[in-house]
Amino acid sequence: MKPPEVDRIAGSRAAVAARxxxxxxxxxxxxxxxxxxxxxxxxxxxxxxxxxxxxxxxxGSIPWLGPTRTARIMSELGISPSKRVGGLGxxxxxxxxxxxxxRQKRKIEPGALVVxxxxxxxxxxxxxxxxxxxxxxxxxxxxxxxxxxxPGEIEGVTYYFxxxxxxxxxxxxxxxxxxxxxxxxxxxxxxxxxxxxxLAEGKSVLLEIDIQGARQVREVFPEARLVFLLPPSWDxxxxxxTGRGTEDQDEQDRRLVTAREELAAQDEFDxxxxxxxxxxxxxxxxxxxxxxxxx
Length: 295
Ligand SMILES: Nc1nc2c(ncn2[C@@H]2O[C@H](COP(=O)(O)OP(=O)(O)O)[C@@H](O)[C@H]2O)c(=O)[nH]1
Ligand SMILES: Nc1ncnc2c1ncn2[C@@H]1O[C@H](COP(=O)(O)OP(=O)(O)O)[C@@H](O)[C@H]1O
Prior knowledge:
Layout: H1 4-31, H2 36-42, H3 48-51, H4 55-60, H5 67-77, H6 90-104, E1 113-117, H7 124-134, E2 139-140, E3 143-145, E4 159-161, H8 164-172, E5 176-181, E6 187-191, H9 192-200, E7 205-208, H10 211-220, E8 225-230, H11 234-244, H12 249-264, E9 271-274, H13 278-286
Parallel strand pairs: 1-7, 1-8, 2-7, 3-4, 8-9
Antiparallel strand pairs: 3-6, 5-6
The protein binds guanosine-5'-diphosphate and adenosine-5'-diphosphate (ADP).
Pfam families: Guanylate_kin, H2TH_5
Catalytic activity: GMP + ATP = GDP + ADP
Domain Guanylate kinase-like: 111-290
C-alpha cells in the first residue's frame, strides 16, 4: 500500500496539471485560436480540461468580456457562478450556445444600431415616431414595460405592456437585449430577437431607451452609435413635461430629478442632438445610419 503522502502528492500533481490544461484552453479562447463555442462543444468527459472549466472562465476568456459583463451574462443565462462547462443542464447549454453564436455574428456596421436617449419629455418619443413614419426601412424597437398604458398608447406599437410576472419570465428566458428599472419605478426592456434579426437582414435599428439601457447596449454592440437628445433649455424641458400633462405632480418631480442626473451623463454619448425642431433632430439621427432611407 502506498503511504498517504504519495497519494496526496500525486493528487496535487494531477490538480496542477488540470489547472495548466484549463489555463491553456483559456489562452486559446483569448487568442482566437478556438472559439468559446468550440470549447463548449468539446466539453465531454473525454476532454476534462474543457469539461472542468468554469463557465465564468469560458465566457471571461472571450476578448473584451471582463468580470462584470461575464457575471451579468451568466445571470441573464440563468447559470450559477460556480458552474463548470461539463455540468451544464441541457437548457443552460442551449442558451449558452445561442449566446455564443450570436456573439460570433455580432460585428455590425457602425450606425446600423442607433440608441436614442435623453431626459424625460425632451421629445425622444416624438422624434422616434417621426423617424418611424418617414423612414419605414428603419426598425423602431418596441420595448416591453411594466408601466400601465397612457391614453392613446397602443399595445405592440408604443410598448408591449406586461405585468411583473411576464417581465420576470422574459428576463429568465434571456429574451432581453437589455433592461432597466427607470425613474425608480417601472421596468423597461428591449426584446432581443427583432433587433438581431433586423441587423442580420442589413436593416438599421433605432432604440429609444434610457441611459442605463444605452450603457448596456454599448457593451453588447460596441459599434452602436449613442445619441443624447438635448432640450433647447432646462425651462423648455419643464414646459414640455408639464405641457404633455401625462404625469401627476409627484411623478413629474421624480422625473425631473432623474433628468438632472441624466443630463450630467451626456458626455458618455457619441453624439448630442438638440431637439429644437422635430424634423431637424430626426434627420440628424437618421444621418448617423449607414444608408439613410428616403434620401
Ligand atoms: N433601458 C430601457 N429604457 C427604456 C426602454 N423603453 C423605454 N425606456 C425609457 O424609459 C423611460 C420612461 O419612458 P416612458 O415611461 O415612456 O416615459 P417618457 O419619459 O415620457 O419617455 C424613458 O427614458 C425611455 O427612454 C427599454 O426598453 N429599456
Ligand atoms: N421639438 C419640439 N418642440 C416642441 N415640443 C416638442 C418637441 N419635441 C417634442 N415636443 C413635445 O414635448 C412633449 C414631450 O415629448 P415626448 O416625445 O413625449 O418626450 P419623451 O419621449 O422624451 O419623454 C410632448 O408634448 C411633445 O409633443
